[in-house]
Design a protein that fits this description.
single chain, alpha+beta, Thiol Ester Dehydrase, Chain A, globular, binds coenzyme A
Length: 152
């Protein structure tokens, strides 16, 4: 991992009563807002540029999040293009007195680095080297191709 351009980011928040929906669990919209902030932070941390959200894909709410749980957002830059990045985010929830964590959300964000005129700007390339990095890169390329975008 390049320490000057970290590709990983972790944010943990407490699920609080102001985030609940009618059923008493955490509202999906509250989670989406946090996901967008985490995706932005991860993209800006890697690119060292201001970034905008281009697309959000495959947001899967796998289970409820309860008030009082610690909710951790684990973000990783999976793919780096000329100006865009794919950020994968896995969200896990844990009740303070329990050892086990639950995987509650997964999703992929496409973020684009922009200049002062909000035009896409070139970012530092990344070459996947480990099998895990290559697997994530290829999966991101597959998702990109489905949107009709060419991979460089
Ligand atoms: C993001 C934005 C700057 C891109 O502008 P653009 O003129 O489409 O730019 P480009 O065609 O040069 O594409 C920029 C990058 O996005 C990628 N891209 C464009 N459309 C894409 C799509 N549908 N899926 C995946 N990637 C896409 C391009 O491949 C390119 O990446 P690369 O340089 O790594 O290859 C522009 O669309 C924008 O400002 N959107 C609004 C962003 C915003 O306000 N977000 C907040 C929403 S609430």
């Amino acid at each position: 991992m390049n320490e000057l351009r970290p590709r990983e980011l972790k944010m943990t928040v407490l699920a609080t009563p102001d985030m609940v929906n009618f059923s008493g669990n955490i509202h999906g919209g509250s989670v989406l807002k946090l996901l967008d902030q985490v995706a932005y932070s991860c993209a800006a941390q890697y690119s060292k540029e201001y970034c905008v959200t281009l697309a959000v894909e495959r947001v899967v709410f796998r289970g409820p999040i309860h008030v009082g749980e610690l909710v951790s957002f684990l973000a990783l830059v999976n793919y780096v293009g000329r100006t865009s990045m794919e950020i994968g985010i896995k969200v896990i929830a844990q009740a303070p007195r329990e050892d086990s964590v639950r995987h509650v959300v997964s999703c992929f964000f496409t973020m684009v680095a922009v200049d002062e005129n909000r035009r896409p700007t070139q970012i530092e390339p990344f070459t996947p080297s480990t099998p895990e990095e290559r697997r994530r890169w290829q999966a991101a390329e597959g998702r990109r191709q489905k949107t009709g975008k060419r991979n460089d």
